[in-house]
């Protein structure tokens, strides 16, 4: 078995952020992905730019995904910078939400970018800064 590079370890955490969110694995996000406190900026979609807890982030997302049948994030174009125990990642991503009972179109899509900062902790890399910048959204935005 081959050891992963530091860059691969960091990208794996970012990929797990999206996968765990898609599968609504809230405890895994708290235990494996985020630090306890996170600088969290979702102001481009009407949220706040604030320091909050990983639990509060998961509670917010869990509430926001209620009634949605499927969530799918696709991310890439990673630009990773590593400085000792701190790393930054820029990524493009799309998020598609699907609701079978919606009558005005069953999907909505968000296209944007992420600026993420991670810190190396004894248990591995963890996200302590998270910023989402929406480029555009389309589809049935209310999934009504």
From TrEMBL:
Residues 7-130 form the SnoaL-like domain. InterPro entries: NTF2-like_dom_sf, SnoaL-like. Gene3D superfamilies: 3.10.450.50. This is Nuclear transport factor 2 family protein. It comes from Flavobacterium agri. The lineage of its organism: Bacteria, Pseudomonadati, Bacteroidota, Flavobacteriia, Flavobacteriales.
